[in-house]
Amino acid sequence: MLSPAILTAAIVNGLLTGAVYALIALGLTLVYGVLHIINFAHGALLTAAMFAAYFAYRALGIDPYFAVILLAPAFFGVGYALQRFVIGPASHGDDRNMLLVTLGLAVVIENALLFAFRADTRTVDLPYALDGIDLGFIFLPLPRLIGFVTVFAVTLALWLLMTATDTGRAIRAVAKEKLGAELAGIDVAHIYAVTFGLGTACVAIAACLLIPSYYVNPSAGNAFVLVAFTIVVLGGMGSVPGALIGGLVIGVVESLSSLFLGESLGQIGIFLLFIAVLLVRPRGLFGARA
Amino acid sequence: MKEFKAVAVVVVAMAAVPLLGVSNVTLNFLIVALMIALAGQGWNVLGGYGGQYSFGHAAFFGTGAYVTAVLQVRYGVNAWIAFALGIAGGALVGAIVGGLTFRSGLRGSYFALVTLAFAEVLRILASVAPVTGAGVGTLVRLDLRPASLQFQSRAAFYWMILALVAIALIVTQRIERSRFGVWLVAVRENEDAAAALGVNATAIKLIAMMISGAITAAAGCFYVQYFLFIDSGLAYGTWISIEALLTPIIGGVGTVFGPLLGALVVRAMGEAAQLVTGGEAPGLDLVIYGCVLVLIIWFAPRGLMGGLTQLRSRLFRPAPAAKVGHG
Amino acid sequence: MAEPLLQVERVSRRFGGLMAVNAASLAAAEGRITALIGPNGAGKTTLFAMIAGFLKPSAGTIRYCGEDVTGEAPHRLARRGIARTFQIVQSFGGLTVRDNILVGAYLRHAARDQALAIAEQVGGELGLGSMLDRPAATLTVAGRKRLELAKALATEPKLLLLDEVLAGLNPSEIRDMVPVIRALCARGIAIVMIEHVMQAVMSLAEHVFVLAEGRIIAEGTPSQVAADPTVVEAYLGHGAAARLGGAHGH
């Protein structure tokens, strides 16, 4: 039953899925690296973006991959506004409060979606969803391939942003030494909001990439985000390469444990890994001291 | 004994409620509110006094519930004993989770994450394990006799949960005035400074977690006796993790009556939402809870009790004169 | 002579490639005030952190009352009788002054009444009597330093590590604090103090250790140490001793 072909297929599929996980984790790790908090609203924002992508397709006929162009900036704005006008002021600078505020937002967003759209599961049926590249021993679905490539494009774009622009430099400065950055004239509240916006934009792009292959319902985001937490912790909080490598690894781990243990227990594999990493090496593979 | 005056007054006043001829609907509302208050009282010990914010208190609630249910249904254990063992189960889970996480020095965001993860792992396990009834859940046989900890009258259930809440109030108050409580708060305020004064922070946090787990587990045990059904989503779902932390925060973290006040307010809001939308609005109550959480943190971080204390001191005491002299 | 209460033997601490403390040795006796001085960045607070258990030494031994306590946790050392104040005051901001001291008092007295009495007493001794009900966060710098001291004292220590307890105080506040410290050592407490305020060091300390770049470069009575050219160089730079010596016809 476990021929090399099946194993390879599982691994490759794991990598393809893992790339999108990595993108979700990237948003999370970016926010942690700069604001030093875990954004508990990350999952809810992903769900919201998935709904947005779904309706963009259903109501406006926009292909999810093109919807990226609309939704990424839109959600950047949403994230910016949330941090600037809600989370920042509400937390009064206290980390514990920020945790609670993001949790509160998560509850609001998720349940607002539940209230508005009920709990029914919806799917998007793209005409080319079942197309793909057939390599004989393995079939690579087109949506997942596009997803894989997009993730790397986004990562490259982010890297360029961080290294080659003033905003990127400001973000890195604030991440390293907030007081110093403030003294150098950087508007920290603005940078925090920009970072949050970028994290939310990542999630919006990921949502568009996920739509063709997954279902949409109000708790969809949660499932992905707990995986994202695991990746971020494994790869190291605040580390971009960590998020990428961690995402790919987790994708493969999930794929293999689903193969050996079945769907639901496969999920447990990830959680147990998560707890183990937190207990044994909280800073993960590439992160700084927790 | 004098210090328990306030608790006694509140408990006696609440005990009188069923005697006033209120409807079953009202009683049911109060019973559920008190059960949530109990869960919140557990969270409050660890989060309010200890400053360790757990996002996975469902782990304790669910354990209490399942232990109580499964022992009765599968092993024929007497309900009272099963209840007590459910509470012990909560303390045990607290010891395990606390032992693992505090030893590793996890704090803040990481602690919140780990507790969330533990609750999720338990939920998934419960949804597939045969002993818990897997996806179908566990039904406790109807047997309306006190010996099975089930009662004909709703009032009896009300007094039962009220008694549990009263015990938790007293436990909380005793903690506040004890060495353990002062050390717990010290650890919350500044762990290093506390260590320098001889406080074993890890041990203190661990004990707090066990007490916290036991109290919240009691709420889970009660749930099973009252509703006679439990499944993985009800036992370990995020709904109870959220309500357990929401009620102390709204009512006032680190205060004795905060969770009770918060639970009544939160449940009232939930009921109001149901009434307004005619019960057709899944999720609306949680939307309101989430908004209130954000608003409370924003504008009234010390919760309702904090607001009440401020009000009282403004009404009964003039502003203290500025002191001149060496600081 | 009786064995010193505290014996630090060739203790070192490295952080990555940096040797913050390099084979430093010092001793402190009961009822005496020992000073640890040195230029900024010399490693004094790191050394304190190791004695108080907040850092593990990379090498060396720390003996207290004759027992090896190297690497023991801070709360254990506090129970043994080692108390410390922090350079950057670490109080329990949200609690009242009384409750702050109470945390320390509870170490030796489990009963609330007793501990409260001790807290009041210690608070009074340090001039905080009128402020016991105020939130700790509302005290002035001098008040907070006294509170730091009060908290540590409430644990009834045999060895008290004072990290720059006089920093940030104006001259009259320093003048008020000096007799307080002296009174403590009269009670039999061994005091090791890190200080930059030289007048206090000279008038209070019976024995002085000088730490520079992680090493102990001199020890002796205050006047011995003040006259030591190596010490002068450490503070004022290479060749300063010779220049000063020449100017004063040494």
In terms of topology, how is this protein built?
The complex is a heterotrimer of chains A (290), B (327) and C (250).
Chain A: H1 4-35, H2 42-60, H3 64-91, H4 95-117, E1 122-123, E2 132-134, E3 139-141, H5 142-164, H6 166-176, H7 178-183, H8 188-210, E4 215-216, H9 220-235, H10 240-261, H11 263-280
Antiparallel strand pairs in A: 1-4, 2-3
Chain B: H1 5-15, H2 24-49, H3 58-75, H4 79-103, H5 108-128, E1 138-139, H6 154-176, H7 179-189, H8 191-196, H9 201-227, E2 229-230, H10 232-236, H11 238-251, H12 258-277, H13 284-299, H14 303-316
Antiparallel strand pairs in B: 1-2
Helix pairs in contact in B: 1-6, 2-6, 2-9, 2-11, 2-12, 3-4, 3-5, 3-9, 4-9, 6-9, 7-9, 11-12, 11-14, 12-13
Chain C: E1 6-15, E2 18-28, E3 33-37, H1 44-51, E4 59-64, E5 67-68, H2 74-80, E6 82-84, H3 97-105, H4 112-125, H5 141-154, E7 159-163, H6 171-186, E8 190-194, H7 198-204, E9 207-212, E10 215-220, H8 222-227, H9 229-236, H10 240-248
Parallel strand pairs in C: 3-8, 3-9, 6-7, 7-8
Antiparallel strand pairs in C: 1-2, 1-4, 4-5, 9-10
Helix pairs in contact in C: 3-4, 3-5, 4-5
Strand count, sense and barrel status of the largest sheet of chain A are: 2 strands, antiparallel
CATH level-3 fold name of chain B:
ABC transporter involved in vitamin B12 uptake, BtuC
Which radius of gyration of chain B do the C-alpha atoms yield?
20 Å
Q: Can you identify the CATH class of chain A?
A: Mainly Alpha
The percentage of residues in β strands of chain A lies in under 5%
Biggest interface, chains and residues, is:
A-B, 47 and 39 residues
Number-wise, the strands of chain A total 4
Query: What strand line-up does the widest sheet of chain A have?
Result: 1-4
Mean pLDDT of chain B: 88
Q: What fraction, in percent, of the residue positions of chain B are helical?
A: over 70%
CATH architectural category of chain A: Orthogonal Bundle
Q: Oligomerization state of this entry? A: heterotrimer
Q: Compute the number of structural domains of chain A.
A: 1
Count of extended strands of chain B = 2
Q: Can you list the strand order of the major beta sheet of chain B?
A: 1-2
Category from helices, strands and their pairing of chain A: mainly alpha
Tell me the helix content of chain A.
over 70%
